[in-house]
Amino acid sequence: MPSIVESLSKFLKLEKERGFKNTAIIGGLHKVVPYWKNEAKTLSISSETVHSVTDLLEEYSTAESGRRQDIIMELNILLDGIPVPPITLRKPTGPLSQPQRPIPQTPVQKTTIPERPVPTVEKAPASVRAATPQPAQSTPRTPAAAPARPPRDVQSPRRLTPGSRLPDSATPVTLNAPLTVISGIGEETAKKLRNLNLYTLKDLLYNFPRDYHDFSQAKTINRIMYGDTLTVIGTIQSIHARDARSGKVSIVEAVVGDSTGNLRVTWFNRKFLVNQYHPGDQVSLSGTVKQYLGRLVMDNPEIEPLEAENLSTNRISPVYPLTAGITQKFMRRIMKQTVDFNARRVADYLPETIRQDANLTTLPDALQQVHFPDTQQTLDEARRRLAFDEIFLLQMGVLKQKAQWQMNTARTFEPPADWMEAQIKRLPYELTSAQKRAVDEIKNDLAAGRPMNRLLQGDVGSGKTIVAALGALMIAREGAQSAFMAPTSILADQHFRGLTRLLTDGEDAPLQPEQIRLLIGDIPESEKADIRQKLADGTIKIIVGTHALIEDPVVFQQLQLAVIDEQHRFGVGQRAALRQKGDNPHLLVMTATPIPRSLALTVYGDLDLSVMDEMPRGRLPIETHVLHPLERERAYQLIRKQVEQGHQAFIIYPLVEQAEDSDENNAAVQEYARLQEEVFAQYKLGLMHGRLKPEEKDAVMNAFRAGETQIMISTSVVEVGVDVPNATIMLIESANRFGLSQLHQFRGRVGRGDAQSYCLLIPDSNESLENERLSVMELTNDGFVLAEKDLEQRGPGDFLGTRQSGFSDLRMARLTDVRLIESARRHAQSVFESDPGLQNPDNKRLAAALEDFWGDGKGDVS
Hints:
There is one protein chain. By secondary structure, this protein is α/β, with parallel strands linked by helices. It has 28 helices and 21 strands. Helix 1 (about 5-15) packs antiparallel against helix 4, helix 14 (about 435-445) runs parallel beside helix 15 (about 465-475) and helix 15 crosses helix 16 (about 490-505). The termini are far apart.
C-alpha cells in the first residue's frame, strides 16, 4: 500500500496537471490533512515538517492561483526531503526458503528538481540501488517528472529548506541572494513580497516586526478580560460553519473550554478549519478578547494544536507588515526560516570596545531576538542595539560629510567693525540678543576661509530674514553675489519685499533697488532675460527666487552666499544645484520649524547651529483658545470685532473641495461661498488654495496684503511665507487634523504687529476636544516646546523633509531618546577622531557597514 508521502506526491502532481484548481481531491487538498497527520506519526516524520505541510495544505484552499503554484512547489520540496525508510524484507516461505544474510539497506534520498536551479542532492550510487532487492508487494517512490529546463548552474544559490543547516565546508547563501532561494517562495510570491520592498535575504533579515503580541502569559478562561491580547489553552467543545450574506461569507463558530469556563470563537472565511479541528481537540488560541451581546468572544484568533511547536502562539509573537496575498502566518514562517539560518552568520561590525562600553548585545543575537524574542528583556536589548547602530552609522556619515565640507576653501569676507555697527544701527528696530549672536556667528564663518555650513533656526517671527540680510550685505560690500531660494513664489516674494525694504530704503541705504531682484516662474520672459544678464555681469548683488534660480540659463558672475529658506522642502539635488552656481559658496539654511535637541544632534549634526529663541521686542503673546464646534458663532463674532477695528483675519480649512458624498464642512471652496453669502456678507473675502495658478495666488495675496480683502479663506498653503502685520486673528477649522508644528506655523501668520492677536482652534467633532495637540497649543507659544511634543507624537517626518538619504533608514531608533543618541554620537566622534578614514583593520567591517547604510545617497554637503 502506498505511504501517505507517496499518495500526497501523486495528488500534488495531479493538482498541477489540473491547473491548480483544488480539484485533485474531492473537497480540496485540505481534506487530506487528518490522514497526513496520522500517517506522518507512524513514519517518524519531524514535527516541524508535519506542521509545515499541514499549514500549506490548509492555506491552499483560500490562496490565489499564483500562490497555489508556490504552495505546490514548496510541498514537493518538503516531501522530497523526507527520507524513505529502509525496506524490511519479508522472510521467504515454502520449499525454496533459505536462511539469508540481511542485506544492508542504503536509503534512496530522492530529489525533485524544482523550476529554479538548486544544488544536486547526492543519491546512492546506481550499482548500490540496483543491488537492493525490492519485494513484490512494495511500490518504490519515484520522483515526480521534472520540467524541461536549461542545464544546472553549479553557482546557483543553495535553497533554504525548513530546519536546513549548512555544513562548515559549504559556501553559505549570501545575504544578497534573491528570495527565491527560500523553500516555498516562487516567482509569484517573490513578486508580492517586492510590494514590501523585500528583494533579498538581507531585506528579510532587516524586515523588523511592526508590532508584537505578547502571548507568553497564557490565562485560564475565567481570568480573561475585555481588551486582553493573550493566549487561551482549551478543548474544542463544538465547531461548525455557516454561510452569511447569501453565501458570500462563511463563518466558522466554535466553543472552546477549559476547567474554568467556555469561550465563543468566530472565524470569517476560514471554512477549512471545520475539517481540520474537531470536538475534543486541544488547541491554543491567541488573539484579542472582544465583547458581543455582553459576552466575551474572540474573532479570527490564531489557532494551533496544543502539541505544535507554537511559532505563532505561546510566546512574544512578531507582527509583520503585509501585502495582498501574503498572510501573517506565512510571513512568520519564512521569517523564522530566514532568521534561524542567517542571523548567526552576520558579522558584528561594531568594535568590541564600543559594544562593551555601551553595554550592547551582539548583532547576531539582536537580529534573532528582535524577530523572535525569548523574553521582553531580550527584545528590549535587541531593539536598543539596533537603534544604537542606526544612530551610530548616521553620525559617522554626518561627521564624514562635515569633515569633507571643512576640507574645502572659500573666499573670506571681513567687514570692518565700524561699518558693521553702522549697518545694524540703520535697521528699523533694535536686534534681539539672539539675532546679534547669530550675526556674529555668520560674520566669523565668512572670515574663516572655509565654506560656511550653518543652520539658522528660529521660531516664527523671530527675525531670521534680518540676520540673513546682514550676511548678504557683508558679501555685497565686496562686490560678490548672494542668492535666496524659497520653496514657493509667495515666500520668495515675501523675502524680496523684506530685503528691499531693509537694504534699499533711505538716503544711506547700502544697496540700490536694481541690485535686488526677484526671479520666479511667472515673471515675463523679457524681464527674466534682463535679470539673467545682470546676474552674469554682476549688477545684481542679491537675487531672490524659487527653483527658477537653479535653471541652466542662470549664470552668476560671483555667487558667494546661498541662502535656502525652509530647507527641508527642497531635495538634496536642488540645494546642490544652487551651490554649484558658485565656487564653494557659503551656505546658510533657514527654518521656521524649531528643531528638537535630539534632532539637532543627529539630523543636523554636520551643520553649525544658530538658535534664535527670542522674539523681537514689543511682540505680544498670541492668545490661543480651543472652542467647541457649537461655539463657532463666538469665533465669527470675534472676527467681526477685529475687522471693525481695521484688522484682518485668516480662516484655515484642511481640504480644498468637499467630496460629493461628504456632509462635513471643512473644505475651503465650499466654505468660502457660504461665509461670503451668509456670515460675512458685509466684508470682502479672499480664497487661497494650492490649485490656483501662481499668478492667481499672487493676486489673492496682494489684495489681502493691501487690505482690499479683510478675511482670507485658505488651506495650508499659507503655512509659511505670509507676513501681514495687520492680521490679528487666525481661525483653524478641523484643527485636530493638523500636527503641532503645522498649527504653530499657522498661528505664526498673526501677531506680527503690535496689536493683540488671537488663534482659535475648532476640532471637527466633540470627541476631538480632548485632543492632546490642541491642549498643548493652548498652554504655550514656545515653538521649541511644541517641537519636542510634536516629535514625541508624530515622529521626525515633518522635521526631516527630504534632507538626507540616511534618515529614511531609521526604523528602530526613536529620535526622542536623547540618552541613546548622545551615547551613539560620543562613540562615533571617538572613532572618527582616531581613524577618520576607517583605515584601521579593526574598522574594516565598520567601513563596509557605513557604506552600506548610506548607499549612494548623499547629504547636504554633496
